[in-house]
Amino acid sequence: MSVLHLAILLPLLAAPFIPFLFRGMKQIHTGWFVLIVPVVLVTYFAGFIPITSAGDVVTATISWMPSLGINFTAYVDGLSLLFALLITGIGALVVLYSIYYLNKDKESLGHFYVYLLMFMSAMLGVVLSDNMIVMYMFWELTSISSFLLIGYWYEKERSRYGAQKSMLLTVFGGLSMLGGIVLLESMIGSYSIRDMVANSGVIAESPFFLVAMILILLGAFTKSAQFPFHIWLPDAMEAPTPVSAYLHSATMVKAGLYLVARMSPVFQESSVWLWTIAGVGMFTMFWGSFNAVKQTDLKGILAFSTVSQLGLIMSLLGLGAAALHYDGMDDNIFMVATIAAIFHLINHATFKGSLFMMAGIVDHETGTRDIRKLGGLMTVMPITFTIAIIGSLSMAGLPPFNGFLSKEMFLKATTKVFSADFFALDTIGILLPVIAFIGSVFTFIYSIMLFARTFMGKAKFDQLPKQPHEAPIGMLISPVILALLVVGLGFFPNVLSNSLIKPAVESIYPTLVAQGQEVDVHIYFWHGLTPELYMTIGVVLLGSLLFWQMGKWMGIYNRIPHRLTLNGVYDGTLVWSNKAAYRFKDNYMTGFIRSYLIYIFVFLSGMMLFSIWWFDMYKFSFENLAEIAPYEYVLGAVVMLGALAILFMKSRLPSIILLGVVGYGVALFFVFFGAPDLALTQLVIETVSVALFLLVFYHMPEISKKEVRMRFKVGNAIVAILVGTTVTLLSFMALTNKSLTSISEFYKENVYELAAGKNMVNVVLVDFRGFDTLFEIVVLGLAALGIYTMIKFRTSRRTKGEGAHEAKQQTRQ
Question: By three-state DSSP, how is residue 612 classified?
Answer without folding.
Answer: helix
